[in-house]
């Protein structure tokens, strides 16, 4: 248990973290990965380069410091991060390494302001926080391995089918190489894939939402090929999967994880909103609702640039046609001439509150959404403006956790 003095010191550093949090975590990653390059086999290199991992860690450290006298308050965030850690293979022996370089980074960035007393307090506080993570993750590791069809670490799966869904999205159907049962999952969860790419020094791990309902003898992921653009390079793993991985190839997969999951206990109308490849967990939820809750009212809304990059349109249209409880709407940012001629969309431009209110009867519903961060900020803002209750708003980040409100935790 932390002493009152240690708690007082940690809480007094909260304003400092607000001002220097990202600088500290940036220095932390630089130092740790320089001295422990083997950890590059775990961390997403792209998120490092874009600064998303640093921001996510800074926000987590800030939250822990602000609640150091009541760590139970951050348990939801701990569980969310723990799901990521389980899927990546983070183990207890990694925590002392993280703690060592976090303290070094605090000292490097704050200089003389980081007194011996402050560093000692943070050493004690970090151990308390790490103990919470290690305890939660130990239980989750046991559950993942002991469940029917479960396993530890990464398991070999064969690509039994590869299907092009659009110009940029391809689905991969995966069955275990050993022919044994596979773990079930909750709609919205993801798996991690570990790939060694020829010419790359380190392995790459990427997390992909499962894009079909549970209960099958396969897992399906639907991967967007991330092409090079003005603000980011081409995606190493997604490009490799699209261009080089074929039916019959073997991939290493983690057990399903994730806390962005469909609540099947409710009977409220449900609204699924997706942008781009953010539709993958939504499709899993939609398919599950169609199979398990065929009476529940479902509104499925998808936004894409146009039909050339719109995956699984025919599948969703068929469900909406066959099932009276499912309605489907499409928003195209820049429809093609063929789209305009066919009028195969419901709105041009972007999803906004005014349009949502014309197609969703009431804000009294459960809302789930996923997509690019600017898209999610827009949806979140619209729902809050409409008065949707916070507990009815559910969303998933592809990658490190970010902020959807106008005010980020860190300056």
Describe the protein.
It holds the Pfam family FAD_binding_6. Keywords: Detoxification, FAD, Flavoprotein, Heme, Iron, Metal-binding, NAD, NADP, Oxidoreductase, Oxygen transport, Transport. With 411 residues, the protein is an alpha/beta fold. The chain has three domains: 143 residues, Globin-like; 101 residues, Beta Barrel (Elongation Factor Tu (Ef-tu), domain 3); 127 residues, Nucleotide-binding domain of ferredoxin-NADP reductase (FNR) module (Rossmann fold), CATH 3.40.50.80. The chain is 42% helix and 18% strand. The chain contains 13 helices and twelve strands. The strands form two sheets. The chain has a six-stranded antiparallel beta sheet with strand order 4-3-6-1-2-5. Strands 10-9-8-7-11-12 form a six-stranded parallel beta sheet, with helices on both faces. α2 crosses α6. The longest helix has 31 residues. The protein is globular and about 70 Å long. The two termini are 31 Å apart. The C terminus is likely disordered.
Descriptive key words:
transport; Globin-like; Rossmann fold; 411 residues; disordered C terminus; alpha/beta; Elongation Factor Tu (Ef-tu), domain 3; OxRdtase_FAD/NAD-bd; EC 1.14.12.17; single chain
How are the SSEs ordered, and which strands pair?
Layout: H1 4-12, H2 14-35, H3 45-50, H4 52-66, H5 75-88, H6 94-110, H7 116-146, E1 154-164, E2 169-176, E3 190-195, E4 204-209, E5 219-224, H8 236-244, E6 250-254, E7 270-275, H9 279-292, E8 298-304, H10 313-322, E9 326-332, H11 337-342, E10 347-348, H12 353-359, E11 366-370, H13 373-386, E12 393-396
Parallel strand pairs: 7-8, 7-11, 8-9, 9-10, 11-12
Antiparallel strand pairs: 1-2, 1-6, 2-5, 3-4, 3-6
Helix pairs in contact: 1-7, 2-4, 2-6, 5-7, 6-7
């Amino acid at each position: 248990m932390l002493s009152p003095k240690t708690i007082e010191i940690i809480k007094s550093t909260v304003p400092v973290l607000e001002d220097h949090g990202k600088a500290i975590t940036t220095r932390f990653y630089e130092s740790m990965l320089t001295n422990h390059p083997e950890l590059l086999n775990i961390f997403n290199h792209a998120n490092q380069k874009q600064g998303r991992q640093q921001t996510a860690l800074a926000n987590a450290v800030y939250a822990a410091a602000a609640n150091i006298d009541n760590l139970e308050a951050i348990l939801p965030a701990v569980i969310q991060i723990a799901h990521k850690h389980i899927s990546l293979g983070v183990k207890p022996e990694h925590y002392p390494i993280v703690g060592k370089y976090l303290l070094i980074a605090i000292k490097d960035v704050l200089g003389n302001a980081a007194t011996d007393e402050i560093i000692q307090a943070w050493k004690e506080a970090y151990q308390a926080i790490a103990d919470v993570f290690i305890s939660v993750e130990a239980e989750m590791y046991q559950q993942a391995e002991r469940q029917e069809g479960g396993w530890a670490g990464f398991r070999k799966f064969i690509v039994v089918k590869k299907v092009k869904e659009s110009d940029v999205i391809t689905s991969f159907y995966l069955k275990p190489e050993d022919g044994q049962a596979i773990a079930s999952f909750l709609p919205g969860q993801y798996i991690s894939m570990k790939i060694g790419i020829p010419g790359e020094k380190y392995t790459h791990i990427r997390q992909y939402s499962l894009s079909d309902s549970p209960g099958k003898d396969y897992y399906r992921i639907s991967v967007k090929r991330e092409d090079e653009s003005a603000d980011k390079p081409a995606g190493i793993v997604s490009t490799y999967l699209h261009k080089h991985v074929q039916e019959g190839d073997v991939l290493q997969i983690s057990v399903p994880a994730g806390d962005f999951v469909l609540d099947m206990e409710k009977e409220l109308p449900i609204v699924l909103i997706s942008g781009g490849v953010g539709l993958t967990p939504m499709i899993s939820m939609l398919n599950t609702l169609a199979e398990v809750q065929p009476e529940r009212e479902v509104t499925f809304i998808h936004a894409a640039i146009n039909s050339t990059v719109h995956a699984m349109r025919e599948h969703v249209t068929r469900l909406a046609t066959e099932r009276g409880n499912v309605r489907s709407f499409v928003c195209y940012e820049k429809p093609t001439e063929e789209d305009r001629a066919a009028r195969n969309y419901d709105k041009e431009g972007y999803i906004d509150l005014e349009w949502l209110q014309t197609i969703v009867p009431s804000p009294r519903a459960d809302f789930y959404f996923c997509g690019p961060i600017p898209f999610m900020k827009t949806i979140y803002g619209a729902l809050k403006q409409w008065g949707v209750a916070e507990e009815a708003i559910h969303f998933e980040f592809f990658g490190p956790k970010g902020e959807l409100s106008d005010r980020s935790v860190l300056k």
